[in-house]
Specification:
- It contains no helices and 11 strands.
- The protein has about 130 residues and is mainly beta.
- The chain has a single domain, classed as Sandwich (Immunoglobulin-like).
- Strand 7 and strand 8 form a beta hairpin.
Length: about 130
């Protein structure tokens, strides 16, 4: 689980389904896990045979549109089975920026190419 505190700038409920961009990856759930440090997000996704082999994970502030890379390369098929995957990622980058966020699964080479977007969820100051 890699994390980067690099703000990549603007990019175009706790358990929700995402919009699917037609590439075969969709976010099936997102939940903020507050137990222990650092605070993390557990997320799961669905995919099919023609889905990309890897994706990057970003978190995007809904109000400011700022986004941060949380994991630069996740294997689509490497964290589950039967066309479903699940993983977690550290969100300590948001510790000083509470607010509404969305999780994005994007192309590892082109972060503007969004594969899936979660519904918004809250990150609160006391989550850390």
């Amino acid at each position: 689980m890699a994390s980067s505190n690099v703000n990549i700038g603007s990019r175009s409920p706790k358990s929700t389904k995402s919009k699917d961009s037609g590439n075969g990856i969709s976010i099936t759930s997102v939940s903020v896990v507050k137990k222990g440090h650092p605070t993390a997000i557990k997320y799961s996704w669905a995919f099919h045979d023609k889905s990309p082999d890897y994706f990057a994970v970003l978190i995007k502030d809904v109000a400011s549109k700022n986004a941060w890379v949380l994991d630069g390369k996740v294997s689509t098929r490497g964290h589950g089975h039967r066309y479903k995957g699940k993983y977690s990622v550290d969100i300590s980058v948001a510790e000083y920026y509470p607010g509404k966020y969305v999780l994005l699964l994007v192309d590892i080479r082109d972060h503007d190419n969004v594969f899936a977007t979660s519904k918004d969820f809250d990150v609160k100051k006391w989550d850390f």
